[in-house]
Design goal:
Length: about 230
Amino acid sequence: MPHSSHAALAKLATLRRLALLVLSAALWSWGCTLPTGSDPMRYRLSGSGIRWDRVGRDQVLKDLLPRYPEYFAVVLDPARSDEPDSRKLRLDLEHFPVDRRNYDALNAVGIGYFEINYHGEQFRKSGDIRFMTSGFRTAGLMAIPWRAYGEIPDIALRNAILDFFQDVASGSKPGTSATAGRVARIVADLERKESDPIRRARIDKIVGDLRAAALPPETPLPVPAAE
């Protein structure tokens, strides 16, 4: 093949790579992702609607239960108010170099957050004081990806963490509005850990969506029924 043809093909390949990078950056900035199929190395709960145990045929919870049995025994039981042991989650999410365990931990955090938040909202509506305990528990879970974002300088993992926060901001899962204001403050703090302008813009958008989704501060709690 003539040298000029080689050069032309090389230039075309370079242009295609640049186009894909630009498209990916644009999609990230608007809170979208390229199709990922069933790849477990991602935030897997996006697009799951009101569910957080599975997405279509992706049985996320069933897949993660054997890895974090003690953690799920706590967060999936609405009768328990003790803090879930999140040390393994934190270690896995901050593992470097990044591999599947980071993403497994992120998805386990997501399931735990949505589960505790859902039951917490049920407690709030019924005037059960356990609503406040649920808020503290979800705040503890949110601290895990917040810390990992600053500890691990991996672009794909950072984007996955933002996918999780954006899923919270979408309001598609029941009960997220009750803690959206607190999550907005946590996400806003990520901006000081981020130097990339595209991800900083995405953080700003997620914070705005969370603040818009949050319950008004004056939203009254129900009065508990008399004994």
